[in-house]
Amino acid sequence: MKEISTSELMNKLRVMVDDLVLTPEIISLLLPNGKPYDAEKQLWDYKEKLPFLPPKVTDDDRKIYNAEIGDLIKDAISFHNAYGGYILFGVGDKGQSRIKGVVGQFDCADFNKRLNASIGDNPIECDFRILDAAINGTTFSFGLLLIPRRAAKRIPIRFLKDGPIKPSNGQKCFNKETYVRIRDECRPAASTSSDWAFLHSDRSPPQHAPTRRDKLPSSLPARDPDLVEFLGRTEPLARLRDWVADPRSPIRLITGIGGLGKTTLAYRFGEEVSELGAGGVEQVIWLAAKVRTYSALKGEMVAVGRVDFDDLASLNRAILAALHYDFETDEDNFEQEDFEERIIEALSIVPALIIVDDIDSLDPSEQRKVVGSMNTVALRTVGRELPSSKILMTSRIDQGVSQTAVLKLEGLERTAFRDFLKNLAGAFHIPPVYGDVIEELYDSSSGSPLFAASILRMVKLGENILHAMETWKGQDGEDVRAFAFQREIERLSTSEARLLLAVMLLGETSVQDLATVLDITTTVVRDRIAQLQSYHLLATAVRGSSNTSIYVPDDLLAVKQILKNHLGSQALSVEEACAKAEERSRNNTKSIGLAIRTIIGLWKEDRAGEAVIAAKKLQLQHPKNGDVACIYGAALLKAKPPQTREADMAFEDARRLSCSRPELSSYIIQTKIELSDWQGLYLLTKSLSSNEAHRDIWLDAFMTACAGLISIAKVRGDWRRVTDLSLEVVERISQKIQRQTVTPAYFQALLGRRFDFGREHFEATAREAPSPGDQIDIFEAVVRLADNEILLSDLVKRGLRALEIWWSSVEMRTTVDETARHILSRQIKRLNALERQIGRVGKPNPDLIGLIAATSHDLAFRGARYGRAA
């Protein structure tokens, strides 16, 4: 059979899937001239053999068979949610002779039964046949499984239970998620916006008239003027998408401190559901209790445009009004149960996504009523013929909702935070924020969009950004912090507020220390900690093997004055008790120093086991001393065998507790390297540096971490990650050399590493640019390296050739591309700058300079001619 193009093949298969074709012609299409395609695509998959059970079945045989069927079920659901498709059995994934053929039979009825048991009430009927085909004169039998396409207006199929466990790796074949086939991959659709949009698209074959999907009716308000652009929140959005597709889980609560973007996330999700019709709902209802909010762009509290309810009764009326439910004449005499019955009745006609924003604006008693009522309504919409309705709430407090239904929001992801700052700088008309300042800003604001915007607003008003970060922690940041936290603090009891202030004053502490300082029992301390955690005002972490530390998140430390104002005269007694505790701690310094010297003596005498026992005892006596944590970690490292993972945890404690021992840095780096914890080492060393002339232990460790991460990225084929990491190292070495004088030997060593990582950057960029139209990226990599004084002749020549290939691809376009002409003009300027730069080096390369000049002249001529051709 004559080969056809990939696009023609895809269109033809889409039609055949919809027509439920299951004939030898499919095999001819998937094995043109008897050869399988090098890559699988969105409409087909190759598998070498049929799942089967041997005549004498063991438990292991059955586990392997169940896992093979589980993988096949995941593939079938993924195909069904996309275009449908075919799975061809009897073709291997690799090797010179991939045509294998199949033996045995496949019980398609049993397969359909297993498949439908995993998905509930939306049955799918796959079809299977054994078909013979002659390949190079030999007849082979192939198995062909047809998976039908999900109709355009049907709800995507979601697994209602986890798949079987694979004996090979202990992983599940699939999870309780919605899967979709994207190119050659079957993956959870909720992970990315593009996959989720495709899942809810028409997906009909090209010759069919597309089924138009109108936006769902919604009562979403106008966008918040402070919303520059929605960024990040990949993981929370994925969790919400997965939730809306789950017919048995009707309620979610987004929670977190003020200023993190709870309302923004809920609004974006509401927009998405309205645009795509996800979850089978037919209407999106937005109801807000918030009266005033803080505008970071204006630097003041502003009134919210629309307030929909202020108690449970008004919320009930607002929901019924949005659902166009006619009230009875005696509505004023309704009991709460009457309202709930009518809301449930209305939702039985029109399933809806109801978003109830900012519940904690209400009085505490009304908050509890609202959450209880919404939970009752949502649960009673489950298990009907219509899809269940969904209720999404936002609140700063957990509201006693089951933790499985709570989505706790934290600061923006670092990458999204950088993009947010870029957009914010544009909105404020101030210079962009670069380099280490971004990391400092992230730490100062804890990734909070509101806090970051408030700091940049100070920059707009003329403050230096470094001063602005410090100023924000003081009086000038009071308004925004009051907006974020004052509501929670004012609702604290005196006893809860005293404990919170004690934690702020003591730093990282323990239940026992708090009980001693506040003169209460440990049981009472734990109860108050639990309450403060529900407001997100305290955090806990397990240190070492069993010790639990209590601390205040960084973004809360600056609200100490608000808390003291709330406590009034009670604050003074807490401060005095904490001061006495600190004084007692300082008096222990001499005894700690003596004990540390004893421990060092033990391991020097090769008594490492005794040193660990002594260090552990000291650590239990002084759990808040950083030097003790450091010496405990060192003893663990010197144990036989070394207890590296436990040592790593001890050194993390030492760093958090402000250890003063100079050897801590070397210990931390050593443990991270021995554990191959490249990501941890990368994050640790990213913003640290040393001023020593003969070495920089932080920079050296950073290079080691990046080399480890690059190796992992190469295995995954993630060349974009390789380009980013290698360029990060190149730029950091350049900054080191430019800003600080180092010894000649260290200077030469750094130059060598810079060249090595520069080549990594170039080669990874080349792998990311396979097509002629992408070749410009390779030349731009040469320019980036030149900006960092990396001028390697072979790389420059390859960059010049790539630029020529890119422009040749532009010249082949049927219409003149003015954007490409402007890009070429910019590249010619870069060529001229590159020529001058190479001419200034110690030993200029005349051949290379001539090649650059010739390339520049040729491209300038061709660019001008391209323009005249228009």
Note the main attributes of this structure:
870 residues, Rossmann fold, 6 domains, four-stranded mixed beta sheet, 33 helices, 15 strands, globular
Description:
The protein has 33 helices and 15 strands. The strands form five sheets. It has a five-stranded parallel beta sheet with strand order 8-11-12-7-13, with helices on both faces. Strands 1-2-4-3 form a four-stranded mixed beta sheet. It has a two-stranded antiparallel ribbon with strand order 5-6. The two termini are about 40 Å apart. With about 850 residues, it is α/β, with parallel strands linked by helices. About 55% of the residues lie in helices and about 10% in strands. It has six domains: about 5-200, Methyltransferase, Cobalt-precorrin-4 Transmethylase, Domain 2 (2-Layer Sandwich), CATH 3.30.950; about 235-410, 3-Layer(aba) Sandwich (Rossmann fold); about 415-485, no CATH class; about 490-585, Arc Repressor Mutant, subunit A; about 590-675, Serine Threonine Protein Phosphatase 5, Tetratricopeptide repeat; about 770-870.
